[in-house]
Design goal:
This protein has 8 helices and 19 strands. It has helices spanning about 5-15, 50-60, 110-120, 135-140, 185, 200-220, 240-245, 275-290, and strands at about 20-25, 40-45, 65-70, 75, 80-85, 95-100, 100-105, 120-125, 145, 150, 155-160, 165-170, 190-195, 200, 225-230, 250-255, 255-260, 265-270, 300-305. The strands form 6 sheets. A 5-stranded antiparallel sheet has the order 6-7-13-11-12. Strands 1-2-5-3 form a 4-stranded mixed sheet, covered by helices on one side. Strands 15-18-17-16 form a 4-stranded antiparallel sheet.
Amino acid sequence: MYVVQDHHTYEQLIDITPSENVMVDEYLQNHTYTRLGGKADFYVTPETYEQVQAIVELSIREHIPFTLLGNGSNLIVKDGGIRGIVLNLGRLASIHREGMQIVAQSGARIIDASQYALSHSLTGLEFACGIPGSVGGALFMNAGAYGGEIKDVLESAVVVDAEGNLLKLSADDLDLEYRSSNIPEKGYIVLEATFSMEDGKYEDIKAVMDDLTFKRESKQPLEYPSCGSVFKRPPGYFAGKLIQDSKLQGKQIGGAQVSLKHAGFIINLDGASATEYIHLIHFVQDTVKEKFGVTLEREVKIIGEDPIK
C-alpha cells in the first residue's frame, strides 16, 4: 500500500512545476462533472509537455501511484479518493490551425475544438459540439455523438508513454473502436491531437451544430451534475429505452437519481455520494438484466478507493 510522503513528494513536484500547480489533499468533487469524489493526495496541473514527462518519471522512480483525471466528465471518483499523484492537463488547452488540420492540446474541451473549426469554416467536428469532455478524454474513449466519432477525423496524436517517452502516433496506432481505444492499456497520456478537416460553409456548419445543440439541450438533464451517458449502447437496443421500459426513471438511491428527462442519465440530484451513485448504476444494470436479459455495459469509468469504514 502506498504511504503518502507528503513533504518529500511535494518538494519534488514543485521542483518540476510551480507550487500553484500542486494541491495537497484536494477534494476531487471540485473537479468532476458529477460533483463526486474524495481527496487526491496530490492534484497536479502541469504547464508543459516536459513537466508531464518529468512527473511520470518521478512516479516511476519513487513508486508513487499515478492517475490521469482528464476533465472529469465521463468519470466517477469513489468517496475514498485517489492515492498518489492525480494529473490534470487543463493548463494544456491551446488550439490552432495548420492548413486543413486543427491541432488541439489534450486539456482543451472538444466542444471548443468544434467551435474553433466552425470559426474557420472547417467541417468534420460538428458531432462534437455538445460532448463535454476534454480532447484527451475524447481520444481515450473515441467519443462520439449523432453519427460521428473521433475516429472519423483524427490524424495523429502526441502522447507520453508509461516510461515517460514522448511519441507521435497515427490514429491507426490507437486502435479506435466504438467508445474505446488502446490508450488505457498502453498507459498513454495524450498531450495533443491533430484533426483532418475539410472546407465548408460557415452557415451550413453552424446550422448543423445549432440543430445538434438543440437536440442535446432538449433531451438531456444538463441542469444537474452527471457523468453524461452512463451506459454503452447494447447491440440491437438503446440503453435509455431499456431503462425507461424497466420503469426506472425517477428511481433514487440517496441523492442519486435516474433522470426523469433522459433515462440513460443518472444525476446527482441532492448531494449524492459516489457510493450511492455507483449503487444506483448496479441497481439499473441488475434490473434491466432481470427484465430483458440484456447486460448494460458502463460507458462511464469508475476509479479511486472505497471510503474507510
